[in-house]
Amino acid sequence: MPDMTKSALKALNRLKNLEGVVKERFDPWQPSNLLRSSSPGVNWLFGHTHGMPRGYSALFWGPGKAGKTLLANDIGGQLHKSDPTSVVWKADVEQRDEGQLDQASADRFGIDLDRWIVSRGNSPELVWDRLCTEIPAAIEEGLNIGLVIVDSISEIQGRREAENQSVNDMTIGDQAQTNQIGLRRFLDIQRKHKIGLILIGHARAEMDMWKARKSKTRPGVAGGVLHHCEFWLNIEKNETKTGNQNELEQGLVDEGRKGMDDKPETTGHKIRVWMQSSTMGCQNRVAEFTIDYQKGIVSQFEEVFRLGVRWGIITRPTAMTYQIGEQKFTGKPVCLKALAESKELQQKVIARLIELEGTDTVPEATTEEAFAEFEAPSLDV
After folding, report:
1. Model pTM?
2. Which of 290, 287, 294, 297 is nearest to 350 (CA)?
3. What's the rounded Cα separation, in Å, for the pair 285 and 307?
4. What is the mean pLDDT of residues 211-215?
5. What is the CATH number of domain 26-293?
6. What is the largest CA-CA distance in the chain?
7. Which of 8, 187, 195, 199 could be stapled to 4 by a disulfide with Cβ–Cβ 3.0 to 4.6 Å?
8. Which residues pair with 329 in a beta bridge?
């Protein structure tokens, strides 16, 4: 601290002791303060120590059936597995949770349904009033609520809309104002109790002709929602030829089961996630994970492999050789097999990735590059 007069020091200490002034800084990037996915690639999107900091907000947006709810469920399940006292509150606005999350699905994600509280309904009082009254009351009684999911914020009724007698009654900006006020009321609670917030939003057509040159869609939420969220994640199914293949270009299919068209049944596909914007970390990173319809998120070793190659952690001494540290592998299949069989080897790559965060070793992608990767087939390595 620089030299100060006694009166200046007295003023400084007085200001520090004012109500609302930060007295002890909280490190949101400590590993114990992070919400994580079972996908290493998704965790990597956030930069720093790989994960979403509790106390902050992420918007998961994209087209229907893209995997937004699936990813939110996965993060909730990982929280349950890492913290046996944690509780997840889900505002089930679209009222699909019972159909989507039976016991078998919950087990795949690691979700404990006894600690998965679902509040069903799309009226604003069932979402925002409960978040702002019931949650802080429960926390004061000792309940550990670490994550809130709103699925979806796009379907919450506006205050006047919920009271209207006819669909012909309309108030412009009603829903936008309702959600903005709800988020504003919840903000102090969220920050004070370090609650992670995932808002799931729909996609809408981009009507601005200049912006549409880069992206044909945009988040279907109001500006107040975008402003509230520190992280915007665009989530889409990989519709390219690599979307139904693993890293060895083998189809994600069951040859033993065929449809009436004589084609094997598809068992999974890949989902791409683009960190479109962030006020706290990296931007324009694109990750991809594999969802198996019976097992959940799988093949994390492939994500580790792709990140390791692109960041120079998995090197290529020769055209046919891959190397991780001192270990060498002849051919891509052998390297992938080693990663699949060794969590320790995967963690070695991830630890090095985290070590390289914040350095200029690997340049950040531009928006154009990230969007091009989001739209195009994955590059071979």
Report:
1. 0.89
2. 287
3. 11
4. 74
5. 3.40.50.300
6. 86
7. 8
8. 322
Distances, alpha carbon 316 to alpha carbons 183, 263, 353, in Å: 49, 37, 17
Matching residue, tokens 């002890």: 24
Specify the CATH number for 299-355; select among 3.30.70.141, 3.40.50.1580, 3.30.250.10, 1.20.120.10. Answer: 3.30.250.10
Q: 112-127: per-residue pLDDT in tens? A: 999 999 999 999 999 9
Say if CB 300 and CB 346 are below 8 A apart: yes
- Show the tokens assigned to 169: 């009654």
Residue pair 152/202 in contact (Cβ under 8 Å)? The answer is: yes
User: What letter represents residue 262's amino acid?
Assistant: D
Is residue 157 pLDDT above 80, yes or no?
yes
Give the residue carrying structure tokens 């795949």.
Answer: 108
Range with lowest mean pLDDT among 55-59, 291-295, 332-336, 360-364: 360-364
Domain ranges of the chain: 26-293, 299-355
